[in-house]
Design goal:
The protein contains 15 helices and eleven strands. It is of the alpha/beta class. It folds into three domains: 54 residues, Alpha-Beta Plaits; 280 residues, Rossmann fold (3-Layer(aba) Sandwich), CATH 3.40.50; 65 residues, 3-methyladenine DNA Glycosylase II, Chain A, domain 3, CATH 1.10.15. The strands form four sheets. The chain has a four-stranded parallel beta sheet with strand order 6-5-8-9, with helices on both faces. Strands 7-11-10 form a three-stranded parallel beta sheet, covered by helices on one side. Strands 1-4 form a two-stranded antiparallel sheet. The chain is elongated. The chain binds iron/sulfur cluster (SF4) (2 copies). One iron/sulfur cluster binds next to helix 1. Pfam families: Fe_hyd_lg_C, Fer4_10, FeS. InterPro entries: 4Fe-4S_dom, 4Fe4S_Fe-S-bd, 4Fe4S_Fe_S_CS, 4Fe4S_Ferredoxin_RnfB, Fe_hydrogenase, Fe_hydrogenase_lsu_C.
Length: 452
């Protein structure tokens, strides 16, 4: 996959300009112009809402094909915990992972392994660093971007721990270089992704992230599902290939991450509109009694990712059932000394802080910006305030902004257009009734008999 700012894209041929996606976008990043949807790059957070709702399958996420693994000498699949929720309980975790390996990978390392490490390291983050209350999880990149775009003042609340996927890749690459004498460029690490937001994170990591954390591609769960199903029927199961804890893979559902913080007041919320409501309360200072907020963009958590196959409620049930079975087997837990040691090396942290990505100023010149702001307010007051979306903008305010910024016209509003058409037809009929002033004059500009 090329380096992408966003993995969500539009197939123009399939788009009918129906405006369904426009109304579901949580950041107002979509416009419909000339009958086709357009994504405003600076506002898109890759949450995948438009992919879910488009009735014509015109919105998609760019991911890698399985064939890309052939570009590397040694390949590792790092599946998201959500993968385990895609299959009925009759398929053991060892069978699922053996089948995944049989598709051409040399090794499987579950992201649940990194999730367990990060989950258990959050308590150290509370004592080592100071965050405004509540500390916000960095796990869901769509929520982190939502905060950057819509709640820029809360950017400092997001903790700087790496996502489990990045940490899993880092530990794996380092081990392979040291133990198998491989060069970094020979190793292909592929994330099996439930969502567009993670696919974007793979292709566009934070600029200062270290090279060990590089992930070479993101393969969508939905693209790998059919071959995996086929392989599961015949694969020879490798005992012990699954080696992560139930707590680790429980990150697939909302509350999985915060379950590590037994002595803290935690709030976990899933679904982008619910997350927005809570962030509004945090922004208004109403939730400073909460220590930790885990917000996940998808309903149910990552099990609801837009690149999954199984119904999110069913997938959640499978994850919970698998976790119940595994909790009886606690030997998979990592040593606390190992976690603490890793934490102290600093490798669990993003080197750079996330910065606000708030809206672009209306104008570089302050005076001009104020004039534009007034113009927007005046225009908005003239518009009907119905936020119907028929103009191709998500609401009347957004259309007013687009007009002032030269990206739309007043007559894009169907109500303004209707009024203009009425005015015009009234004027036309008045003109027809009055008649042309020159009509009854002769060549010498003298009134004709009729007019006298
Ligand atoms: S939902 Fe959006 S992308 Fe899909 S057809 Fe309608 S306008 Fe086009
Ligand atoms: S909740 Fe999980 S699947 Fe959904 S956007 Fe966030 S990281 Fe991706």
């Amino acid at each position: 996959m090329d380096k992408l700012m966003h993995s969500v894209y539009l197939d123009k041929d399939k788009c009918l300009g129906c405006t369904t996606c426009l109304r579901s976008c949580p950041t107002g990043a979509i416009r419909v112009r000339e009958g086709k949807a357009k994504i405003i790059e600076s506002k898109c957070i890759d949450c995948g809402e438009c992919i879910r709702v488009c009735p014509h399958h015109a919105k998609m996420a760019k991911t890698d094909p399985l064939s890309k693994i052939k570009d590397y000498k040694y390949t590792v699949a790092i599946p998201a915990p959500t993968l385990l929720g895609q299959f009925k309980m009759k398929y053991s975790i060892d069978r699922i992972l053996s089948a995944l390996k049989s598709l051409g990978f040399d090794e499987i390392v579950e992201v649940a392994f990194g999730a367990e490490i990060i989950g258990r390291a959050i308590k150290y983050e509370f004592t080592a660093k100071h965050y405004p209350k509540p500390m916000i999880s960095s796990a869901c990149p769509a929520v982190a971007k939502l905060i950057q775009v819509r709640f820029p003042e809360l950017t400092g609340n997001i903790n700087r721990l790496k996502a489990p996927m990045g940490l899993t890749a880092r530990i794996t690459r380092k081990r392979l270089i040291e133990s198998k004498n491989l060069k970094s460029e020979d190793i292909g690490i592929f994330f099996i992704t439930p969502c567009a937001a993670k696919a974007t994170e793979v292709s566009n990591p934070l600029p200062s992230d270290d090279l060990f954390s590089t992930i070479d591609g993101a393969i969508a769960i939905k693209d790998i599902y059919a071959p995996l199903m086929g392989a599961m029927k015949t694969v020879e199961v490798e005992d012990g290939i699954h080696n992560s804890s139930a707590e680790g893979f429980s990150w697939a559902v909302s509350g999985g991450e915060s379950s590590y913080l037994k002595n803290k007041k935690v709030l976990h919320v899933d679904g982008i509109s619910n997350v927005i409501k809570v962030l509004e309360e945090i922004e208004n200072g109403k939730l400073d009694n909460i220590d930790f907020f885990e917000g996940l963009a998808c309903i149910g958590g990552c099990v609801g990712g837009c690149l999954t196959v199984e119904n999110n409620f069913v997938a959640k049930m499978y994850i919970e059932e698998r976790a119940k079975l595994e909790r009886m087997d606690s030997h998979k837990h990592l040593e606390e000394a190992y976690i603490k040691n890793l934490y102290n090396t600093g490798m669990m942290h993003q080197k750079e802080k996330l910065v606000p990505r708030g809206p672009k100023p209306l104008d570089e010149d302050m005076g001009e910006a104020i004039k534009k702001m007034h113009a927007i307010e005046e225009l908005e007051a003239k518009l009907p305030g119905l936020d119907c979306g028929s103009c191709g903008a998500p609401g009347c305010r957004a259309l007013a902004e687009d007009i002032v910024m030269g990206n739309a016209r007043e007559i894009d509003c169907v109500f303004v257009l209707k009024d203009r058409v009425l005015e015009l037809s009234k004027l036309t009929s008045e003109l027809l009734q009055v008649g042309h002033p020159m009509k009854n004059k002769n060549e010498n500009n003298e009134e004709t008999e009729e007019e006298k």
